[in-house]
Amino acid sequence: MEVAAAYIENDNHETLCALRPHHMSLSNKWELPGGKIKKSETAQEALQREISEELDCKIATHEIICEHTHEYDTFIIQLHVIRATIIEGTPKASEHAKLIWLSKEYLDSIVWAPADIPAIEKIMKDKKVFLIARGRPFYYSD
Fold it and tell me: CA-CA distance, 90 to 121, in Å (whole number)?
């Protein structure tokens, strides 16, 4: 199964984290929001659709920050984590039990779904600096 997940930061450089509800597999585990990629979609298109459906907001997608395969007991997931920014609306937890914003240094304080852990580790180690050049945001990485 191919899945796209969003790494979304707010203006305070906090990451959006979503808690899986009791009725879903991996209940009470945190994840980066997103969902399954349909055969007719790119990872970016799937992520925009899923965030619109699940969080009732619109995003712009940017670069893929992490891709890996994780093997659960009953299925295998190919995860594509994409940096995204909210361009319209405020995220609402319609399909998740809860949404929180956490600073990078606290991302390891919650229990993540196993497939998300490599991306979370990468985000925590990332030393990107947010800059403004010619009135436009961009990220610089050491």
Answer: 26
